[in-house]
Amino acid sequence: MHNHTPFNLTNAAAEEMKLQGFELTPFPGHQQQLADILAGNVKDHRKRTDLRGLAWSSIDNDTSRDLDQIEWAERLEDGGIRVRVGVADVTATVGKDTPIDKFAARQCATIYTAARNFPMLPIELSTGLTSLNPGEERQAMVAEFVVDGDGSVREQRIFPALVCNSAQLAYSHVGPWLVNPEHAVPPAIDPAILDQLRLQDEVAQRLRRHRQEAGALDFRRTESTPVVADGRVLSLEDVGRNRAMDLIEDLMIAANETAAHLLSQAHRSGLRRVVKSPERWQRIVDLVYVTSANLSHRVTLPAEPDAKPLNDFLCKQREHDPDHYPDLALAIIKLMGAGEYVVVHANDPYPPGHFALAANDYSHSTAPNRRFPDMVTQRVLHAMLDNAPAPYTDDELAAIADHCNERDKAGRKVERSMLKRAQALALGSRIGEHYRAVVTGAGRSGTFVRVLKPAVEGMLVHGAEGLDVGDRVNVKLVHTDPARAFIDFVRI
């Protein structure tokens, strides 16, 4: 039994935020601007299409209060399905270079930890006035597109609208119901919303098949999420993906591609979210060759990065060896590298793509309550629709991209560190237990492994010689220290 000295997760989260250079207090003028907004003194005079009568719904985590998107679909006579994704029009309320905007630009994103969240925007906005809360009239930017039977997309457009969310739903309820309609129907749902969910699921499946045929990588991961109450970790809960999460992901990818496509078509400079070709592709090739030994034949990937054959292998491996698939998926995710923001200039002929999503032109535009690049993209879209000058110069966009990339890394450090601390608290009573693990990092800072059940990551403090990302090992938990975010294993 390993008893930790009293440790306050909430205080640790604030300290970690400061350590990584995040602000904890609003900028001067913030409160006055917020008061003006809440008093109704900030007016948006754009003409908006009235879509309040549609059966919109949102699907998010059980505890989410910052609702960025709502969805609606209709079947067309030609077999296509028209989709509308309503995105909170945050920038209609938060003006460029105002105190609230400057704070958001400094933070770049909302940081989520088990003990406490650190919102990019005031919660009076992100969970109130600019959140697409059920039963409330809201301003939105609507991305509209038609999806044909083969998953191809046409008739893309974006326009400002008035909307009203009819139902706030949760992944945990909708996902099981989509797989098995005999499963309990999500509580208090109008039949029209159930029809919507079925149609949205159908169109999401079309989009997913089309992306996978193009080479999009379909990873299935399980995350070990701490259950925290009053600053205490009660347990670790392994949370995997479900069908409702896939539905939202597929519709958001299509909406983000729509925004990027329209900006490129209009020759407007803007931000893009890219995942470049993996630098460690040869390690992926080697890992796939070794891992494919249990298939009918060895798989040799091309010498140059190519997502399509990689995804074909992943799908076969998931079906053939589901027990070990999480190890493989995690290793390849680590070898892929992180996404980043780049600037696409007005006349760039070939925008950079997103390797993992098989997307040729991809923006972040669907979460402006929690990501600053989405606010930037929203302003550029408004300027395009209004035929107005660009709200940002190319140099300003480049500076925003660089800053957001740096803050993105810092934010991941905060979230990873706080997750480690919470997991260390939960694992304190399990010192000496043995686990199956996969190597997730091997470098100058040490060798790291991830245990599959519970899904936690820690350092391999002994026995790391000769190991590389993707190798499987058996380990023993020997030490945890929540104050230092340490979870230590040895090889056995």
Automatic annotation (TrEMBL):
GO terms for cellular component: cytosol. Residues 48-387 form the RNB domain. GO terms for biological process: mRNA catabolic process. GO terms for molecular function: RNA binding; RNA nuclease activity. It comes from the Bacteria. InterPro entries: NA-bd_OB-fold (IPR012340), RNase_II/R (IPR001900), RNase_II_C_S1 (IPR040596), RNR_Ribonuclease (IPR050180). This is Exoribonuclease-2. It comes from Terriglobus roseus.
